[in-house]
Design goal:
By secondary structure, the chain is an alpha/beta fold. The chain has a domain of 223 residues: Periplasmic binding protein-like II (D-Maltodextrin-Binding Protein, domain 2), CATH 3.40.190.10. Helix content is 34%, strand content 15%. It has 22 helices and 18 strands.
Length: 556
């Protein structure tokens, strides 16, 4: 192991490792031990919980137990503020007693411009701390930062934060229910050639699916056999057929909440990105490059004509609102609402999903325990929620997974997946941190980027940090089937994670336009959620075209 650098050496003397429990208490419960150096840590304690951080805090305190500082204090006491409280912009950083922050939805460049964040370039370019005297030796923290995140965080060679968690809105499905109801496509079966009449024929729909969960299954959207997506819908038409078959089998396809507008918006954003692919979707974060998918016209029969390849610049970047992937995402959103057959049972979602008091936690409860909530013989197949939902719902003994998003049609099967990480979550140090505390704060941030800390986070939350790391067999054994599916989806080799962050000066200048909840699918200043809009207009003819053009008319 490598000897520790000046980050810690300047203030430390060697000691034995002892345990400490300050992080097991909330900030209001902590009696400050004035004999120790205090490190104040603020963490937005949402769906991921704080068990992982509590453990790592205790380990870090143990490293420093007995260490004598130049100010006469001995040891480190981490004082936690693990709540759902936030800070209100750079002004909220002034006078804030916290030193290290782990927060989401932070406009990195605004805080850096205001000099609210401490420069941590030395930490990022070094190896992660693993102990009082040791560091990792193989990869610097900088090399663990995925390229897309580095492109955002690296400001002329300087770093003021590191990525925190990776988040995405998912279609989470009940694997046990899919097995029980035989909701997997049989080998060689697809709805790609189905007509509208075929979708109304229950026998033809039923013929697409396995009759026994052990039957051979069709290739999924990755187009490969013997992978985790076998039997899952590969295309939009397959997805439509699945929703019909679910209802035939007595299963309500979807449940969600609309109290949090970002949930459904995030999912449709993700489908837009998956349709476009990394290169074309990234144009929305740079406002420069060659756009190959700009819609020129849409005929009443749905036929789409694209513009020739168009160079995007400061004068025409709003044309990106007309990307074909967005148009197709609207079609996908329609499928979440209705199977399009016109049957009395065509609705695809649980009836309370649009109720004002139907929160994300209630939706989780209905998904996990339908019997307890009066649904009875109509279990729910999919929950629209973020990757944190499993930990938030405290699920045990159940088998859930993330559905790989289907492709628009068969020609796209096997193409790489593009997913968005949309919450701009960061780990940073306040620039107001006292000089005597800065080395400890830097060492703590460094420790949180160690492979051990990254794995600990994943083991406890069943989700991922936005860093490059590999889970050991020991880590995987501690995780749920859901956590393993999240990990497999990211590390399958054909998935690109694109953080929703402005990447050029022009994009940053238009950061307010780029707010991910409103950017892609709003038709007015008050309109955000695409499924709410579609629900209100679902019976209108050519609603996909009308909605797409309404977005354009608002944005142009």
């Amino acid at each position: 192991m490598k000897r520790i650098s000046k980050i810690a050496a300047a203030v430390l003397s060697l000691t034995t490792m002892l345990g400490c429990t300050a992080c097991n208490r909330k900030s209001e419960d902590v009696t400050i031990d004035k004999s120790k150096m205090q490190l104040y840590v603020k963490y937005y304690n949402g769906g991921y919980g704080d068990e992982w951080l509590t453990k790592l805090c205790s380990e870090f305190e143990g490293m420093y137990a007995g260490v004598k500082f130049s100010n006469g204090k001995t040891g480190v006491e981490i004082v936690p503020e693990f709540t759902r409280g936030d800070i209100n912009g750079p002004e909220g950083m002034k006078g804030n007693r916290n030193n290290v922050f782990l927060l989401e939805n932070k406009d990195y460049y605004t805080y850096v411009s205001a000099k609210s964040f401490l420069d941590i370039t030395d930490v990022v370019n070094d190896y992660a701390v693993t102990g009082l005297e040791t560091k990792e030796t193989e990869k610097t923290i900088a090399t663990k930062i995925p390229e897309a995140y580095d492109e955002f965080l690296n400001i002329e060679g300087r770093y003021y934060a590191v990525p925190f968690f990776e988040s995405s809105m998912n279609l989470n499905y009940d694997v046990d229910l899919f097995e029980q109801k035989c909701l997997y496509f049989a080998a060689g079966k697809t709805a790609e050639n189905f007509t509208e009449e075929d979708f109304k024929d229950e026998s033809k729909i039923g013929d697409l699916f396995v009759s026994d969960p052990d039957d051979d299954r069709a290739f999924g959207p990755d187009g490969r056999e013997n992978t985790s997506d076998d039997g899952l819908p590969a295309t939009y038409k397959d997805f439509r057929a699945l929703t019909i078959q679910m209802k035939i089998a007595g299963v309500t396809p979807f449940v969600w909440n609309t109290s949090d507008v970002d949930y459904l918006t995030g999912l449709v954003n993700d489908m837009w990105a998956n349709n476009e692919g990394e290169e074309q979707m990234k144009l929305n974060l740079t406002f420069e490059g060659s756009a190959a998918t700009i819609v020129d016209t849409i005929a009443d029969d749905g036929t789409v004509t694209l513009k020739p390849a168009t160079t995007i610049n400061a004068d025409n970047y709003k044309l990106l609102q007309r990307q074909k992937g967005k148009l197709d995402a609207i079609d996908f959103a329609k499928l979440l609402l209705d199977d399009g057959t016109g049957n009395k049972n065509s609705r695809n979602y649980y009836s309370k999903s649009f109720d004002s008091g139907f929160s994300h936690t209630i939706a989780q409860s209905y998904f996990v325990n339908p019997d307890a909530n009066g649904i009875g013989d109509n279990p729910i197949g999919f929950l629209v929620d973020g990757s944190w939902w499993y930990n938030e719902a405290k699920v045990t003994g159940r088998n859930f997974a993330v559905l790989p998003l289907p492709k628009t049609d068969a020609s796209k099967i096997g193409t790489p997946n593009t997913k968005l990480s949309d919450r701009s979550s960061l780990i940073f140090i306040s620039s107001e941190t006292k000089s005597e505390v800065v080395p400890v704060a830097k060492a703590f941030v460094s420790f949180l980027q160690s492979d051990h800390a990254l794995r600990t986070y994943t083991e406890y939350t069943n989700t991922l940090r936005a860093m490059t790391y590999t889970l050991t067999n020991e880590s995987l054994a501690k995780m749920s089937s859901y956590g393993k599916s999240v990990y497999d989806a990211r590390n399958s080799g054909d998935t690109v994670i694109l953080p929703w962050s402005p990447l050029t000066a022009l994009a940053r200048k238009n950061a307010s336009l780029l707010e991910w909840r409103t950017y892609g699918f709003s038709t007015t200043s008050m309109d955000k959620n695409p499924l709410v809009y579609l629900k209100d207009h679902i019976k209108e003819k050519n609603i996909t075209k009308k909605y797409f053009e309404a977005i354009w008319n608002y944005r142009k």
